[in-house]
Amino acid sequence: MRSLSVEIIEDAVRKMVMDANYNAPEDVKKAFDIALEKEESEVAKKIFLEFKENHKLASEEKLGICQDTGLAVIFLFLGQDVHLVDGDIYEAINRGVEKGYTEGYLRKSTCDPFTRKNLGTNTPAIVHIKFIPGDKVKIVVMPKGGGAENMSALKMFAPSAGLEGAMDFVVETVRKAGPNPCPPTIIGVGIGGNFERVAFLAKRALLRPIGSKNPDERLGSIESELFERINKLGIGAMGLGGRVTSLAVHVELEPCHIASFPVAVNIECNAHRHKSIEL
Amino acid sequence: MEFNLNAPIKDNSLEKLNIGDRVYLNGVIYTARDSAHKRLIDALDEGRDMPFEIAGSVIYYVGPTPARPGKVIGSAGPTTSYRMDKYAPRLLDLGLKGMIGKGNRSDDVISSIVKNKAVYFAATGGVGALISKCIVKSEVIAFEELGPEAIRRLEVKNFPAIVVIDTFGKNLYEEGIQKYRIA
């Protein structure tokens, strides 16, 4: 059994929220370069060049890539041989988030749903903890903006809808979102589980690096077909028309109830920020 | 085409703009997003003064990140505009001339844009750091307690925007997407 102070996790989260918000990840940078080659619209090409310039500037000046520095979505993969000491893990993560957003001049976006009063802390973070074998702790921080999150959707289909119904729903969700979620987007799709699980699967699907292959052949071919259909929509960068509407479609699947066929679509904006470390 | 545009807008200079035109804004614009819009409309309902002159003004839908010491403002890109659709026609009727944001507008807003000869501009979403360089001065003038949602008076220099809905009600999102859609 390895003892690990939650203060170490707090400090890691503090640094990671800043790092993720200033420094665009390599998979996104690479995807923009590929998109620039594919894109035919001059307007959209110019936007991709702006994205690249913005990445450079944000990193150099320690500015948020986007002013919406997001709700702090945090995945903690916790080795089951780790004994966390020195306090409550959730409180530690929230302290790390608040400190990072304050020290890093990042925008705090959490508010009371009714009064809309800004809480001034950017907490609570959205924390997902999963146990894994071993004595390591992996932390993934994914600041998630509101604009793309608002365009996401979940539907509890009847099983008769089938794969075709699920795919139409995904494409239609992206079409209806149009320019709103700051395309080019990354599309996380969850299929199966139940009501809350399917939303989680869609979120977790966003963690897979852009350009990576789904290890499941069946899901891989669904992803390819969705990717093709979505990029035929013509939405393009910032919805001004173009060939590149989404940079990737990632699908995760789990078994579901014999009565159900849950499908969730989580849309991620072009400012796809993520950072991971292992402790 | 490309145009330089001075804000506030006190003449008919918007009427020459067409969808797809690139505009560089210079002068004074105001920030307002969700909560600030609600407060503005509440103030109108209660007969209170507006924190800035709406007639001729340009509103930028943005909630910036905090400025680092010695800097004017933090990252400052546009937020999604449809959330202001409920409030926009009221302000357009008072003479609001320009809105800068990103994403679709409702039919009501588009009708009001045509009726009031206003323009809806899009700035590029996700390039907040880059856009911040066009803001030369920033001052909170109302609702400071709203934090990032407070109303700020911004002085801008060559602030880049694209005409998405022009004074005739044409919509670049529809036309642009149509051009690249593969049926």
Characteristic terms for this protein:
heterodimer; A: 279 residues; alpha/beta; four-stranded mixed beta sheet; 8 helices; 10 strands; B: 183 residues; fumarase; five-stranded mixed beta barrel; 5 helices; 7 strands
What is the N-to-C succession of helices and strands of chain A? EHHHEEHEEHEHEHHEEE
The major β-sheet of chain A equals: 4 strands, mixed
Secondary structural class of chain A: alpha/beta
Tertiary shape of chain B:
globular
Instruction: List the total number of helices of chain A.
Output: 8
Tertiary shape of chain A: globular
Largest sheet of chain B: 5 strands, mixed, barrel
List the total number of helices of chain B.
5
Find the count of extended strands of chain B (DSSP E, 2+ residues): 7
The protein's oligomeric status is heterodimer
**Relative helix content of chain B:** 10-25%
The percent range for strand residues of chain B is 25-35%
Strand order of the largest sheet of chain A: 4-2-5-10
Rg of chain B: 16 Å
Structural commentary:
The complex is a heterodimer of chains A (279) and B (183). In chain A, the strands form three sheets. Chain A has a four-stranded mixed beta sheet. A four-stranded mixed beta sheet of chain A has the order 6-9-7-8. By secondary structure, chain A is an alpha/beta fold. The longest helix of chain A is centred in the first third of the chain and has 20 residues, at 42-61. The two termini of chain A are 15 Å apart. In chain A, helix 1 packs parallel to helix 4 and helix 2 packs antiparallel against helix 3. Chain A is built from eight helices and ten strands. Chain B has 183 residues and is of the alpha/beta class. Chain B has one domain (2-180): fumarase (Alpha-Beta Barrel), CATH 3.20.130.10. In chain B, 22% of the residues lie in helices and 27% in strands. Chain B has helices spanning 34-45, 88-93, 107-115, 128-132, 172-180, and strands spanning 2-7, 22-31, 58-60, 98-101, 119-122, 135-142, 151-165. The interface between A and B is large, with 49 and 47 residues.
